[in-house]
Amino acid sequence: MAHPLYAYYGDDFTGSTDVLEVLASAGVDSVLFIGAPSEALERKFAACRAFGIAGDSRSRSPHWMSAHLPALLTRLGALGAPITQYKTCSTFDSAAEVGSIGRALEIGRATLPGPFIPIVVGAPHLRRYVAFGNLFAAAAGTVYRIDRHPTMCSHPVTPMHEADLCRHLGAQTTMRIGRVELPALNQDAAAEALRRCESAGDEAVLFDGVSETDLLRTGTLIWERARTHRLFCAGSSGLPYALIRAWRAAGLMAAETAPRRTARAVDTLLVVSGSCSPVTEQQIHAALRTGYQGVAVEAEALVSEARAGASTDRCVETVVRHLREGRSTVVYSALGALTPGTAAAGEVLGRRLGEITARILAAVPLPRVLLAGGDTSSHAVAQLGLQALTWHTSLEPGAPLCRAHADRAALEGLELVLKGGQVGSEGFFEHVRLGR
Predict the structure, then answer these.
(1) CATH architecture designation of domain 270-434
(2) What is the pLDDT of residue 257?
(3) Which of 39, 227, 232, 288 has the smallest number of Cβ neighbours within 10 A?
(4) 10 Å Cβ neighbour count for 417?
(5) Where are the domains of the chain?
(6) Could you give the CA distance from residue 10 to residue 85 in angstroms, rounded to a whole number?
(7) Of 372, 376, 324, nearest to 353 (Cα)?
(8) What tens digit of pLDDT does each residue of 85-94 get?
(9) Fold classification of 6-249 (topology level)
(10) Mean pLDDT over residues 117-123, rounded?
């Protein structure tokens, strides 16, 4: 195995491919495993320098995390990378009862102990910013504090009601969390600020970040510490983005970004969406206007044991007919936010949509599929029987085109895009079909 630089566990699949894109597009050979890999599969990708495991802890309970994360983090730690990250969504949405990042920090500290846990959430390439510990995110061209973000403040599972990330984590863990703030980064005093945090007994340290320069200074500081003691870290794809400059300076990777790859256009695209984001709603409407066929499925029927079978059969039959006629098709369970009082059922819904996708692919072999929605993608991909993903090309930030690896010949080489609800321009579906 090549000397690994970095390993990570992604708390959902869309975020996992986001990191894969940041690394691979910069020239770091990377692979994303779908679950813990077998030794044989690990050997197949032994030349890689970065390894990820795509998971779904973002939609799981602390009890589930306690039962499953230690073994997964131990497996990643055994690779010997100086840095192992618990990768979160850049919107950091989580709660004490579901997707608890605080609980993940506690498990990481116990499983992969280190001097402190760096937390890097700011990701300017995704228009996510952290200033004085508060998280901001863009929507429709406007930057909002996360607790006032039009989607994230009313997320159906993990609404964000607190922008101060230390306070937000304080509802999930009793760990002491310090901060390295913008003035320290801008005045070249970050190392001293970090020393003060450690002297004060802070077990984790949140780094501000609103610009590429902030991230580069953060990445250099974290890498310097990781060279002397392996670190368990947490946060968004801003962390690997920050580390890339430090690796280049150390001669651990090429000085320049690899040339951009291109992808061919495909005649028909299948889109399967469980997202209730207004961004995805706009994308669905845009696709329908350009000639895509729309197939609405009732979420309540899909999650009902009594009604799921008939609903699934009707959906598959309709979609297969459209695809055989050469029509790109969007399957969707929602158009925008859920109506008040509607219960979210991300795991069951995602699993059903994954079953629908698998049945469609068995009937109509397709070269490319787009899955929309963080929870949807995580649970749906698990139904496809894939082993790993590698980066193929970048389309729009946070939603790369990936190549699937599988035992089944029919799925080997399938091109897959996993899109978070908030990601992508209005015409993104057609950009995916065209490969640009």
Answers:
(1) 3-Layer(aba) Sandwich (3.40)
(2) 66
(3) 39
(4) 27
(5) 6-249, 270-434
(6) 8
(7) 376
(8) 999 999 999 9
(9) Rossmann fold (3.40.50)
(10) 97
